[in-house]
Amino acid sequence: MIDLGSDTATRPSAAMKRAMSEALLGDEQRGEDPTTTALEERVAALLGFERGLFLPSATMANQIALALHAGAGDEIIAHRSAHVVHYEGGGTSMTSRAQVYGLDTPRGLFSAADVEAAIRAADPHHPRTTCVVVENTSNGGGGAVWPLTLLDDVFGFCRDKSIAVHVDGARLWNAATALSLPPRRLCAGATTVQVCFSKGLGCPFGAVLALSDASWPRARRLKQALGGALRQSGVCTGAMLYALDHNLEGIAKDHARAQKLAAGLAAIPGVSVEPVESNLVFFSTGKPAAALLSAVALRGVRLGLVARTVSPERERLRACVHLDIQDDDVDAALIAVRDALSAP
Ligand SMILES: Cc1ncc(COP(=O)(O)O)c(C=O)c1O
Asked: Mean pLDDT across the stretch 238-247?
């Protein structure tokens, strides 16, 4: 199966497994796992933050960040297609107990003016706006990369209004690659940043939350409370350090293959492809999406179906290019989609 259904489909390579098995270990809960400490310090430096906190998943990192920035009765502004809205099991209502206001703007991106328009007046009728979530790249937005001017504009506005900004950077590596900028440039002005290792970097798990010294104790306590504090986690973080050393450079190739896939799809009659800026290719066809997915799967290719994140009536198909996808996989996927669409 050529798995384009998600960029989480990658399997750890033999070399990554070796890095895991050879990692130096200790008790992470006591701060004694040297591999995890090394990862946290390295990611903090890469993103320009004082501290890093290793977490088993990006979902847990997002939830801890939101609980740092918002509480009961508060409101978090996010794009309505955001991961924190659709795919975290309603976690925000459990961890921070704040409500989320979903912005409805093109491609998952928004401006300071959009945020300003969504901020509530200081009035006992309204919730208090305390946090904005920027998802970069925006998955629901078609893998859109936040332009630097827009990002700086939102960061600056929120700083002036004392509103925290959390960056869901599950694909921040992709955004930085697309803009040819160091990742820290996309974080300057954010309050917290989550980066994930199980997507573009090809690890089986793992995320790091970058944060300030001041917010670290509370975040560490929340990690404990949510059961995210591990013991000899170097077996996990060894893979993540390996990925930083070896897999970052592969992202540019993923983006080139995504462009090739998009061009091939656009050439198939009836297929409409959204603009491609990173490793995600969103498209739609005139046929019911579920039937097309099955027909393509019969031809050995898995695609994803994204429903309802942007509009209830619009079915979008998603193809994710990742570390385990080569040029001939793209060619085979194009043949499978063309065949499936031309079958009676
Ligand atoms: C934008 C975004 N944020 C967060 C996550 C959560 O990642 P995890 O599976 O590590 O919890 C994902 C997963 O696909 C994602 O796409």
From this structure: 98
